Amino acid sequence: MATQLNPYLNFRGQAREAMTFYQSVLGGQLDVMTFADMGGMGVPESEAAQVMHSSLGVSDAVQLMGSDVPSQMEGDFVNGRISLSGDDRATLQRWFEGLAEGGTVNMPLEKAPWGDWFGDLTDRFGVSWLVNIAGTDGD
Question: Is 53 left (phi over 0), alpha (psi -120 to 50) or beta?
């Protein structure tokens, strides 16, 4: 197996909703395990149905993972930013528009000074996404 770098997102009770949303935008196969599936893992009964681990396999190059953080784990679990880039303009534009639904577009997807198309958004779950589409002559 080749080495991969997989973004892993954390949520407080919204992992299933978020990962299902990402599947609706990005496509792919979503696999979900709950805390209950794994014997409870010491979480309160009220959180047993929450996501212990999920994996959204979109392609060999795109895999997104996520889970709920149990209430007994204190702290601020910051997700950082996810960058999507490439030259498949139709796919990346569709993903940008889909991820923006219910979220905030911080910078519209438009021609950037460096010649590519670039946009920045925060989705409805508070996750930040950067999209860069490699520019071509005539864009």
Answer: beta
Is the separation of the CB atoms in 20 and 11 below 8 Å?
A: no
Strands 8-11 and 63-68: parallel
- Render 59-123 in DSSP notation, one character per residue: SSS-EEEEEEPPTTS-S-----EEEEEES-HHHHHHHHHHHHTTSEEEEEEEE-TTSSEEEEEE-
Q: pLDDT (tens digit, 9 = 90+) per residue, 51-95?
A: 999 999 999 889 999 999 999 888 777 788 999 999 999 999 999
Helices (H), 27-68: none
Q: Which domains, from first to last, does the chain contain?
A: 8-68 (3.10.180.10), 81-133 (3.30.720.110)
**CA geometry: angle at 114 spanning 130 and 106, to 5°?**
30
C-alpha–C-alpha distance, residues 87 and 115, integer Å: 12
Percent helix, strand and coil across the chain, each rounded to 5?
A: 20, 35, 45
Among residues 95, 103, 80, which one has the least CA distance to residue 133?
95
- pTM equals 0.86
